[in-house]
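ARCHIVE CARD
CATEGORY: sequence design from structure
SOURCE FIELD: tokenized fold
FIELD CONTENT:
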């Protein structure tokens, strides 16, 4: 009798151990347990730690409560300014209601992935290329709002959405490089012009100060000579004052515009007075009066450059 009791107690103990092993569950810290009894959701979500369920009757599903990092495949689309781009992104989300994540949607991971791809294509069509390249913070916020609205009904909260890369065609890359080069050249020219303006103002102030002190101009001239001679070259450059050239130009008399630069000097021609009336080829002293002869001699002297003695009147025998 005692042996039978011992055998029955041992069998009951073994059954209790088997039952406890089948009913015992351990929920980790980053998980939550959702129990279904005969397919019906139990109201209480099991917290982390050791818990018990009814074997065969209950089914417990563990839901990960960690933040999930899900890459969004690259989506190709046309921007609002008609540029074809490929954009990929990454979504960070977490489950906030384990019961809704299991009951309201079949696979919340797949649902979030498809919604992210659709929203990414939609945001590409609504944005310009410049916004995709330089205003990503605003686009990330827009994507987060587009995903968070339906995901809240699934027991999922979108933590953040980030656009990782924007792929452009090669022709567009070359055009953007040319645009950036032109913009940098424009800024370089503006900076150079500003520097020239500042330098001209300083030079004008220096010229005004040097005009008050003539010795300052001489010292500046000597500094220039020293700077040129410091290069150890065989040629010495001396500045020539422009004022001296202007002084020489004012001192030189104006030349006649119609005179040839290399024409020989020629005395002005003088008209020879005509002979007196009644003078013949063999006339005497009356044929060439003294006044007429002197005028002719002056003309000959001007033409030949030699002096001519006055003609003596012939004597009568």
């Amino acid at each position: 009798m005692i042996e039978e009791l011992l055998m029955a107690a041992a069998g009951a103990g073994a059954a209790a151990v088997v039952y406890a092993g089948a009913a015992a569950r351990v929920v980790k810290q980053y998980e939550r347990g959702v129990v279904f009894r005969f397919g019906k959701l139990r109201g209480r979500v099991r917290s982390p730690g050791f818990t018990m369920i009814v074997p065969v009757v209950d089914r417990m599903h563990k839901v990960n409560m960690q933040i999930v990092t899900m890459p969004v495949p690259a989506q190709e689309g046309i921007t609002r300014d008609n540029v074809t781009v490929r954009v990929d992104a990454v979504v960070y989300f977490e489950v906030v209601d384990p019961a809704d994540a299991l009951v309201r949607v079949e696979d919340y991971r797949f649902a979030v992935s498809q919604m992210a791809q659709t929203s990414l294509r939609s945001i590409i069509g609504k944005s310009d290329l410049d916004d995709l390249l330089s205003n990503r913070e605003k686009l990330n916020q827009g994507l987060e709002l587009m995903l968070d609205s339906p995901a809240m009904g699934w027991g999922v909260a979108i933590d953040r959405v980030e656009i990782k890369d924007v792929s452009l065609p090669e022709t567009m890359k070359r055009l953007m490089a040319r645009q950036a080069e032109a913009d940098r050249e424009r800024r370089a020219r503006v900076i150079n012009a500003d520097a020239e303006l500042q330098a001209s103002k300083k030079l004008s102030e220096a010229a005004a100060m040097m005009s008050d002190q003539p010795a300052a101009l001489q010292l500046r001239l000597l500094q220039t000579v020293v700077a040129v001679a410091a290069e150890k070259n065989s040629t010495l450059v001396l500045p020539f004052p422009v004022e001296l050239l202007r002084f020489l130009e004012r001192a030189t008399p104006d030349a006649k515009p119609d005179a040839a630069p290399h024409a020989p000097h020629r005395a002005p021609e003088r008209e020879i007075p005509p002979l007196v009336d009644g003078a013949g080829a063999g006339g005497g002293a009356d044929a060439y009066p003294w006044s007429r002869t002197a005028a002719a001699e002056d003309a000959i002297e001007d033409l030949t450059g030699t002096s001519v003695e006055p003609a003596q009147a012939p004597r009568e025998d």
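CARD ANNOTATION: The beta strands are 24-27, 31-37, 40-41, 49-52, 58-64, 68-78, 84-95, 156-167. The mean pLDDT is 78.
SHELF: design records, drawer C
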